[in-house]
Amino acid sequence: MNRPAMRQELISWDDFEQVELRVGTIVEVHDFPEARKPAYRLTIDFGEAIGLKKSSAQITTRYEKEQLLGKQVIGVVNFPVKQIGPVQSECLVTGFYHPDGSVILAVPDQAVPNGSKLG
């Protein structure tokens, strides 16, 4: 099978270590009707040291709000705040694009303490 070659820019280990990928639990999920593409507004608990962070995520195709409450996700917690419509996004929830364009969340396969660093 021929796959198109992926262009990869190499980074150093130090570059990777600067990205704070942490586990958090979704504690609030709300519709986000102001978003250009269908999305939810999320509040995620990243543990005592980091606290609660807000984000938006375009995950409405594969996830219902009820499925997301209590779900652990992996997020980048050290990006600057980004204004997305009326929402200040304080972290980036990670996921993988499915061939149909929907997003499948990156999650731990077992429960770990909120705030745990991926490494």
From TrEMBL:
Database matches in Gene3D superfamilies: Nucleic acid-binding proteins
The keyword tRNA-binding is assigned to this record: yes
Taxonomy, superkingdom: Bacteria
Domain TRNA-binding span(s) in chain numbering: 15-119
Alphabetically ordered keywords of this record: RNA-binding, tRNA-binding
GO terms of molecular function: tRNA binding
PANTHER family in alphabetical order: TRNA-AMINOACYLATION COFACTOR ARC1 FAMILY MEMBER, TRNA-BINDING DOMAIN-CONTAINING PROTEIN
Family matches, as NCBIfam families: chap_CsaA, PRK10089.1-2, PRK10089.1-3, PRK10089.1-4
Name of the protein in its database record: Export-related chaperone CsaA
Organism for this UniProt entry: Planctopirus limnophila (strain ATCC 43296 / DSM 3776 / IFAM 1008 / Mu 290)
